[in-house]
Structure formats: C-alpha cells, structure tokens
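hiii so my PI (J.) wants the whole complex modelled not just the main chain, which honestly fair. so below is everything: two entries, each one labled with what it is. i double checked the lines twice but i was tired so who knows lol
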Amino acid sequence: MLNFTFSNKTRVHFGENQISQVTNEIPLSAKVLLTYGGGSIKKNGVYDQVIEALAKHTVFEFSGIEPNPSYETSMKAVALVKQENIDYILAVGGGSVVDASKFIAAAAEFNGEPWDILAKGAKVESAVALGVVLTLPATGSESNGGAVISKLATKDKLAFMSEFVLPQFAVLDPSVMNSLPARQLSNGVVDAFIHTTEQYLTYSVNAKIQDRFAEGILHTLIEEGPKLFTDEKNNDVNANVMWSATQALNGLIGSGVPQDWATHMIGHEITITFGLDHAQTLAIVLPRLLWEMRETKQDKLLQYASRIWGINEGDTESRIKLAIEKTEQFFHSVQMKTRFSDYQLGEEVVEVIVSQLERHGLTQLGEKQLITLDHSRNILKQSL
Amino acid sequence: MLNFTFSNKTRVHFGENQISQVTNEIPLSAKVLLTYGGGSIKKNGVYDQVIEALAKHTVFEFSGIEPNPSYETSMKAVALVKQENIDYILAVGGGSVVDASKFIAAAAEFNGEPWDILAKGAKVESAVALGVVLTLPATGSESNGGAVISKLATKDKLAFMSEFVLPQFAVLDPSVMNSLPARQLSNGVVDAFIHTTEQYLTYSVNAKIQDRFAEGILHTLIEEGPKLFTDEKNNDVNANVMWSATQALNGLIGSGVPQDWATHMIGHEITITFGLDHAQTLAIVLPRLLWEMRETKQDKLLQYASRIWGINEGDTESRIKLAIEKTEQFFHSVQMKTRFSDYQLGEEVVEVIVSQLERHGLTQLGEKQLITLDHSRNILKQSL
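here's the output for the full assembly
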C-alpha cells in the first residue's frame, strides 16, 4: 500500500425526505445562492422542497447551468455572488451543477483571472461555503473537492481540485431518481463504474481493503444498474446506485493506490470536440484502453476477471478479453453504447482527438504514464 | 437501506514515517498533553518520534493509562488538563489510550460529575481537541466519536459517543505493529472482525454497498490476520490489517443498516468481572450468540456463509453451523481462544454475568432487542 492522507468532512444526509436538513445546515444569517440547471427540479418537486427548507433564509437564484458546465456561464454567477455578497452556495442538481458551483465558489474569492485555476493550476486559497442537494448520482462531486469546467471559446475541458470547495454537506435523496430520464441514469451508472475502474484497474500495491471496496462498488452497480430500466426499479435500487456513485469518488477507494484517469482525459477531449455526454465517451474509450494496456494492467485485469465476472479458466489473454467483453455487455445492459459509430462518428475523430491531447500536453497518460499519443490513437481507432 | 447521516472529519495520515505529520497538525501555540499507557512506546521508538515532532511545542505528559481504561485514572489526567490549561491532547497508543483520552477531553470541559456522561448519558457539549498516534490497530477509536470507560470501584464498563471527541487527525504507521506482542495482535484482529459482524450479521435492509464493504473487511482480516503470526508478516500485511480495523468502526459500514452490539455488551460484563481482554470475551460470545439467534439472523448468516466461506451446499442449519465453525477456526488461527474453559473459568461465570446485565438494564439486546436474559444465559452456558 502507498502512503496517503485521507479526509472527507462532507456530512451526508441520505434517504427520503432528507432535503429538510438544508434548513439547519445553512446558517440563518447566510445570503444563499441557489444554483441549478435547466429547471427539471421545478417539475420533480425538488425545487419546492428546497425553497420550503430555506423559507427563513435570504435566497438568490442562478439557473441555466448546462451539462459540461462552462466557464462562460459560471462567470455570470460569479458576478452575482460578488454583487450580492453571497456567503453560501447551495447547488441543486447533478455533477454539472455541483462542479460549476465549486468553480463559482472558488472564483468569487480568487484574486486574478479565475481561468488560471483550471489552465495554470493557480492555487485556490478560499471559497464561498458550498452545500449540495444531489439530483443525479454519477460524479461523486457531492463529496469531493474536484470539478471539471469547459471553456467553450477555446474547446478546453479542464479540472481543478481544492479542499476549499469540498461541500460542507450533501443531501442524497434516492427518490429524486424516479424522475430522471433513462439517458441520465445510464450516464450515472457508467460514470460511477468507470470512476471505480480508474482507481482499481492499474497495478497491484497489495492494498486489499481498497481492492475489496472497489469490487464491492462494481458488483453493486452490475447488480443494481440494469434494474433502473425495468419494473424492478424502486427506492432501494436507487439508493444502492446512489451510494455506489458517492463511494466511487469520495477519495476512499483511491487512497494508497495508483490511479489511471486516462479514460477520463481522452473522454474529455471527445466531449469538448464532438459533444457526446461525458459517460458516453468513457464507455467508448475504456474497453479499448484496457485491451491496449493489458500487459501493464495484467494482474489487476485478471483479478477483475475472476472476482467480478467469475472468469477463472483459459489463458491470460482470453480471460482478459472475456472480462472486457463482459464489461461492454454490462454497459449495453444499462442502455449505454460503446462505439463512435453508434453516434454517427467515424475515422475523422481520431486525429482531432489526438491533436487535442497533444495541445493539452496529455502525451503520457495513465498510472505509469505509459499511454503515449500512439497508444491513444490506437485506442481511438479500435473504438470506431 | 435505512436513512442515515454520515460524516467523519478525522484526517488520517497512513503509512511509514507519517508520525512527523503531528508537527503541522497541532497548532504551535497549543499546550499539548501527551497521553500514553505503560511505556511500550518508549521501547519501540514511537515516543521518540512523537517528541521529535513536538520539539517546538509545549508538552506535558500523562502516562499509565491501563487496558480497559478506568474512570479513576482518567480523572487524574482531567485534573492535570485543568491545572495546566491544556488545549490539545495527543493520544499515543491503542484503543484504551484513545478512549481514555476522549473521556479526559470531554470531562475536562464538562460542568458537573463527568461519570454522568457514561452512567446517565449526560450530553457532551465541548471537548479539548484530540489527535491520535495509533500503535495498535483494533478498536477504530482513532476515527470515531465513541469510547468505553470502566469504573473499577463499581464494576461498570460503559460507553459514550460524542462528535466533540472525534479525533481531529490520526497517524496510522503500520510499522509500529512490528513491536507488538502476539496477544495484542490477536486482540486487534478479532476486535476488528467482530466490530464488522456487529454491523453486518443482523437482518437485510438491502444495503448492498454496506454489505460488500463489510465483507471486504472480513475477507481481508481472514486473509491477512493469520500472516501476522508467521514469516509472511510484513508492512503490507500490517497495513491491510490496520486499515481494516479503522474501516470496521469509523461509521461507514454501519450507516443505513441495523446494528447488533449484543456480543460487545455481554463481553464488557465479562471483562469487568473476570478480567479477560476485550477481544477474548468477544471471541467467546460471538459463535454462540450467532447460533442462539440464527433464526432472526438467518438471511445474513446464509449470505455470510456463502460470500465469506464459500458455503453453498446443505440445508439452512448446517450451512449456518459450518459458517460459525469456520469463524471459530479463524479465531484460533490468529491465536485466539473461544471458550471460558480456555481461561480456567467454569459455570460460576454464568449467573454473575447475567446479574451484571440485569443490573445495567441490558435485558433486551441486539438489532431487534430480542436477546433477553434467558438468551444471554444460554449463550454463556453454551460457551463454557
């Protein structure tokens, strides 16, 4: 096991009817900015519950945060935060709203050009306090300090991390998943699954708890994910998927182990250039990336084949091949496609994405930094 | 899954040479009280590392905290904390030192008779800040808000919980385990194992992540625990056991699920009356408690039999019986005995313990409060 420091102070309120916890979580003296997306929260009752919980607070609103939230939109909210002296941001939505709110929280107190936080790794030294009411389980952003923001003008999709934007609290009510469209559920399950593999399918450092917990998340998503699209969907299924997604990226399973994240880096470039949903890009890249890097990932891929898919027979290559096939079948079972051609995209994507990776300096990706542009090119070609 | 609120803000520094983190964790302005036990930390180098880390701090010391720490000893430290205006306690030791330090931290700021915190559930409303350098993985006390204290004068062993005594930070250096005697290693493995079963072997609420994580801890302890007593012992083995013990009782696997704790309640009475180590009592009680309550715990016992021990054949009773036998064999494999007779105790224990349980109002124990004094009596009789 590698040395690590782990802490996560986000207070999670999990279960039905927990949105009322917002009342006591946010000081009554705070000026609150409610941030949200396209307005689905007004149809599913979440908005009403939040407003009721904040009945005695001073509340401002900022809506219209888009999927793959943009720097451009976020900066409008930053202006509002400064103008109204907001001192608490309550993000009500999925990963996009939460990520945007983190950037808004940091940018509002940043001296200088906030884009530098993303583009130059400029240090965040304070942020407006942040709380979350989660409406879509997927990114784990509700209890971590990371966020991904896109600059539309320049086609940059970049990440930053700061303990200052870790949410103070997060409300996870699984019943809100009942109003989600299938596409968002597919995205959520696949995103959580691949967050887990990014921290698990690397090389072994004999970190047994981290491996077992990662496997527990994968098993749960495999068992429960497909039920979301059938009559078996109920609040227990929702809850198990929701809690999986949080555990997949709250820092716990990644503590003391190597991490990959190449699938995400390549995926980000696909989203910013071709507009696919984040999880759609991951599901295209992961199967081919695992195959491309099967030698350096061999031990963990064999462990994955055995413990997750029960594959114990055959030679090494055939076991790995079958495990990757099973993974792709699982994605299909949650209504997720796994090829560029499924989105009417062809060979034209390959060099565009490779150029983007090169432009962003992403020429040595993965847990051992062995994924060169040639590897990325091959992964993309095999994914057509 | 049941509704829950989970948070755990203890910052864990894990790995070799992490004791130096103490320097930055404790404000330089703080007056620090170093608390420890019988002095083994002076032989294994931990004391020297801590003193080096606190070279620029003002440090007082309080040693002599015993296993199953007492109210009587703790109150001496409380007097010192008040006299010297201590504002940070650094507990260096195992669960006993940490638990005592929690009580000291709370009692020093408590208005009234501190014993009421334990005996009457009097509310803790503040506490001296607490940090931990852990020397013995077992209780999970390094990152939870619970503590168990014994009053020798009256043979009471009682617990309290408060978020105010949750350690601010905990240093977990697995190499400190190399100097531990076998008996303490046995105790640690068994304690962590039974903390896990107390939160897992109840009844199903379809909480799949919690089940999988609990099973991950059990698997790891079963795989790694016995190696502590062989040539296979190394820092990876130490680390896996140590991280298992923390995860077993930091609140995570118990969130959203029913909990038992009857084994602990019965065990506490055995320790306070007959002096057995805490984990020794648990290893005696658990096998018979699981058998006694096999009907109400049936579904989880069958899941345990299958997932942990690979037992999938035979009728219900025989599968449960075999799983319990395997559990007991595992305890033996980590040099832990499982019968009163192993400690030269006989039938005389039964009514003494039953009286203690009655005196403490522990007449309806377990996740469904179905463990009456008659059940406890039978569990004890079967454990002779």
